[in-house]
Amino acid sequence: MVLDAGDVVLRPFEDRDRASLVEILAQPDLMQLVLDERALAPDEAEKFIDEQFRIDKRLRYETVSLKSTDEAIGFSGFRECRYLDADDIEFGWVLARKHHGRGYASALGTRLIMRGLESWQLPRVLAACHPLNHASERILRDKLHMRFERQVEPRDGFRRRVYSAAPGWHL
User: Choosing a second label site near 138 at 20 to 30 A (CA), which of 72, 127, 129, 144?
Assistant: First the structure.
């Protein structure tokens, strides 16, 4: 299912997206604050794509592409999350650095929250960011108006600031 977020769309992964996504996953300055906090080698990126994009479930990553050109500029989606000691669903995004600051993450976040709360009728959806990822935290807190829950450390040295949206959420 395609999710329309204004100038970008979230759509199912296609093989033509692979090279762009491998390149994004390899960028150290981008990846240091997301996922496992490190750039992925090409073989690791290929494995990540095969495991996280090609699964036939609603909880997966999909390609973020520009609506005007269909160019793959990142990925976004949902995954299971136990940061708050419950069976929750977390959404997130990773966009190529050159596409930051254009409102794409805010637009995606809005649509993902709506999908989780309205379409899927979840009791809440979560989003989490590295404590030093100030841009993402500003989007979660100030643009998406999500509620700060707490900072967690699910494993040594791996910290996340967790935000939630629940029914009744609005911008």
Answer: 72
Phi and psi, residue 83, nearest 5°: -60, -30
Give the pLDDT of the chain (171 residues) as one tens digit per residue.
Answer: 689 999 999 999 999 999 999 999 999 999 999 999 999 999 999 999 999 997 778 899 999 999 999 999 999 999 999 999 999 999 999 999 999 999 999 999 999 999 999 999 999 999 999 999 999 999 999 999 999 999 999 999 999 999 999 999 987
Residue among 36, 129, 57 nearest 91 (CA) = 129
Q: Which H or E run contains 19?
A: helix 18-25
> In the beta sheet, which residues pair with residue 88?
81
As to burial, measured by CB atoms within 10 angstroms (0-12 exposed, 13-18 middle, 19+ buried), residue 127 is buried
148: left (phi over 0), alpha (psi -120 to 50) or beta: beta
| C-alpha to C-alpha distances, 53 to 27, 45, 72, nearest whole angstrom | 19, 11, 13
